[in-house]
């Protein structure tokens, strides 16, 4: 199994470093001793079928849940001991829709800006620039309720970027969207990595959202089964494509036992 290099003395600080993280809901183990790190300004796909533990991992990284076992560092700031410093560097787009439907696009964004202490002209400028980034310029007075699912997602992405994070987390951001909206949103996010140097962790169960140049972290029922560059993960598992490799690594037999032991 290939693992991404962890940061060490003299190395670049990891955008995200997850070390030996476990999480249970009562008796149910959702994450089991998961470790990986992602470098700044890279696009990393967090791949896993339903129930693999992606949302649980996001809830721990965003400090919605306390990390009781293991540690999570964001640009070297520990999410438990320095949560303010760590969270300042992260923007999050959750799987569930979170816009206030009765407010306008601008009101949704300016409310969030003020939560981060950004107001006045600075907020207006950032909102205008970000609406362009997500291709929603001219829509600030529209009621959130009037937007399509894909447009709402774009506003949520703009909102997540308002405080200029260096790491962006997106949990199944394209779920429920048509093919064109999915491709458009994915392209917008990939551009952010290229143009702004933002590190992205993109959680999905859709293998067609992975490109050859990406990094992947693959979870299966709470276990990390692979992480690294797509080409390295394919090679290490003897596959010929990431689709084949993911299918092999995600396989669970009828008795619920995993078929491969990477
Ligand atoms: N609040 C909860 N209480 C009990 N079990 C939970 C809870 N949330 C998640 N689980 C269980 O933990 C495991 C991981 O779930 P999680 O939602 O993190 O996976 P996921 O990869 O995000 O899947 P999905 O794409 O379906 O949301 C699953 O078995 C799920 O049933």
Automatic annotation (TrEMBL):
Domain ABC transporter: 16-246
Domain of life per record: Bacteria
Keywords: ATP-binding, Nucleotide-binding
Residue intervals passing through the bilayer: none
GO molecular function annotations of the record: ATP binding; ATP hydrolysis activity
InterPro entries in the record: AAA+_ATPase, ABC_transporter-like_ATP-bd, ABC_transporter-like_CS, ABC_transprt_ATP-bd_su_PQQ, P-loop_NTPase
Family annotation (Pfam families): ABC_tran
Entry keyword ATP-binding: yes
NCBIfam families the UniProt entry points to: PQQ_ABC_ATP (TIGR03864)
Family statement: Belongs to the ABC transporter superfamily.
Protein name: ATP-binding cassette domain-containing protein
């Amino acid at each position: 199994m290939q693992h991404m290099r962890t940061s060490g003395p003299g190395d670049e600080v990891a955008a995200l470093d997850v070390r030996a993280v476990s999480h249970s809901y009562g008796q149910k183990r959702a994450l089991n001793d998961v470790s990986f790190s992602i470098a700044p300004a890279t696009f990393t796909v967090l791949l896993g079928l339903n129930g693999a533990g992606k949302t649980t991992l996001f809830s721990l990284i965003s400090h919605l849940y306390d990390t009781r076992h293991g540690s999570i560092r964001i640009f070297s700031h520990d999410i438990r001991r320095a949560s303010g410093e760590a969270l300042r560097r992260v923007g999050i787009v959750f799987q569930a829709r979170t816009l206030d439907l009765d407010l306008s696009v601008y009101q949704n964004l300016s409310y969030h800006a003020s939560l981060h202490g950004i107001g006045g002209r600075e907020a207006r400028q950032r909102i205008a620039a970000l609406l362009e980034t997500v291709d929603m310029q001219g829509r600030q007075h529209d009621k959130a309720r009037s937007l399509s699912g894909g447009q709402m997602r774009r506003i949520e992405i703009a909102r997540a970027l308002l405080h200029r994070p260096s790491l962006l987390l997106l949990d199944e951001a394209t779920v429920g969207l048509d093919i064109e909206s999915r491709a458009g949103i994915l392209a917008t996010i990939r551009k952010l990595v290229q143009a702004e140097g933002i590190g992205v962790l993109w959680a999905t169960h859709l293998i067609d959202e992975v490109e050859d140049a990406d990094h992947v972290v693959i979870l299966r029922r709470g276990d990390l089964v692979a992480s690294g560059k797509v080409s390295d993960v394919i090679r290490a598992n003897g596959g010929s494509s990431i689709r084949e490799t993911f299918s092999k690594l995600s396989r669970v037999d009828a008795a619920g036992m995993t078929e491969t032991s990477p």
